[in-house]
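Reading a protein record of the kind used here takes only a little practice. The record below shows the convention in full:
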Amino acid sequence: MILIDKHIEKARALVIDGNATSRSVMVAQLRDLGVGHVKSTGRIADARLLLEQRGFDIVLCDFHFEGEMSGQDLLDELRREQLLPYSTVFIMVTGEATYAKVVEAAESALDGYLLKPYTAAALADRLTEARKRKRLMKDVFDALEKDKVETAIDLCLQRFHKREPYALFAARVAGELLLRINRHDQARWHFDQVIKAHDLPWARLGIARALLAAGEIAPARRCVETQLRQEPEYAEIYDVLGRLQVDQGELAAALQTYRTVTQATPGCMLRSQHCGTLAFYQGEAAEALRLLERTTAMGLKSKLFDVLTLMLIALLRFDARDTKGLLVALSYIEMFVARHPDSLRLQRFIKAATALRHLSARQIPEAMALARELSGECDDPVFDVEAANVALALWVRIPPDLPDEGELDTLARRIGLRFCVSKAVTEVLIAAARHHDRVTEIIRNCHVEINAMAERAMTFTVRGNPRAAVKTLLSQGAETRNAKLIEMAGLVVKRHQEAITDEQDLQSQTHELHQRYCRPITHIAGFRRTGRSPGGLIMRA
């Protein structure tokens, strides 16, 4: 046994390779190098779960997996979703045919690569070098462990600008952290400095992400589309473009974008999940069901799995009159509710899915009671866009002769007035209602009505009476619960505070309404909007 460093016996390693023989050889080599604990798996999905559930010091991963995402795709997904500690050594193993592709993709993202066939000595060299880098950057990783993000950023920037060892790795970490804490302008400047030194794909995409996070949609789109023409095989560009298209209400275009990248990386659970959800909203039932059920098979236990997937499967199974499939989806939702009994989001899902089960069994009173219970929450502060989508999706599936006259219209108007804050949200609400003719007309009219309210209120400002504008916006915002009107009131107060005598009182009223109804949109068209993924804006509802 050859110990490559004095701490290697305490290290935990994971080997990921679809070939059993190759996998056993890697495990034996790591043990011969002194690695104390070695696990192995032949499937990407199993590897993802293992990496989510426990920490590994070393990951040795094959690049190519038949019919699945590549090892590089797995690494990108884990880094993107912050599920792989920076302190983990990730080494890719590749064959001759993919060598150039790995080198291009791996700059500053990988700790090393090995070209098959390789010797135990070559593996030892790669591990020694990678673990040395981790030791030299221990101050950065320690700062992140203690949640001292600003300190970690400063240390990384210092290493990059002084051109110290592993400067590019530090530069990438700094860029990701700047985006995470919403320092968009600094992130953009930083990525530009990286490009001047080394024109790397991740740095160019970083500029687009910074522009998008700052709300500069047009330049972000130009940046992404230009890079896509230059590097159509760089999968993460499609993630950013798809989210940008969803933000702008271009659901059909976003679906096509995600179809492209999902076909290229069929084992990527998040992309399959997003593509299936978009297919659902676009009425592509067969495609949606195939992708969403594949997502469930790949990652039901994964932290990246979104339970909305099961809610959509329940709706699709109901539409197909597949009672057995509907009950399976309902049982999975019940499993999540049992784990998280206090989740209002999951409780809404269980109400809607159970109502579908009652409708399927022609248990009309029970179904209508749950549907009305769900719609009765429409004015609650915690009722969000996703809840509105689920409520609409359920109600448009109720036979038209069952609700009281005008009940669906009333619900659609309440939802439209509250949530029509942008073209994107309006289009998603309409898609959730399956483009039901009457509901579509009501929601579009609500969007027009909210815009008209905002324009009429702003005419007071033009006439030199900003206080009247604020009072009008607050009154209509309180009545409709529409965050666009409430946030506009806050902006007018702030901009014209010197001309408003009771500015503090109006600020207080605005703040109160803002706290109640201006919650960030965490989900739109099934996309988790946490700021973690590329282009993941926090949109105000």
Notes: The first strand starts at residue 12 and ends at 16. Residues 212 and 218 are 9 Å apart (CA to CA). Confidence is low (pLDDT under 50) at residues 102-108, 529-541.
